[in-house]
Amino acid sequence: MQVGNRIIYDQDGEMLMQLGEMQGDVLPRKDITKLNFVDLEYGQVDLSKYRIIKIDVNTKKPVLEEIPQVLTEEQIRIQELENQLLLSQEGLLA
Questions:
Q1: Using CB atoms within 10 A as the burial measure, which of 51, 56, 64, 85 is most buried?
Q2: Helices and strands: H and E segment counts in the chain
Q3: Verdict on whether the full-model pTM lies above 0.70
Q4: 20: which DSSP letter?
């Protein structure tokens, strides 16, 4: 299958995004019947911890998915040492 280039543009004809052509084992593009937008404040979503998966069309708020945090061996070891330190401090306080 071949899918042509899709260009999204604003009210003045300025290109905002170009999705490019595709061919091979690809899905056809969905027909667009309406476009909306939402402006989020800078830093409103911590993009190091969450990804925006879509916008709730009723509330106009982003629907977020937590990005799994993969710890390195060093980070795991630091976390274990911190836990041991906390446990030893609790033992001293008891």
A1: 64
A2: 1, 6
A3: no
A4: -
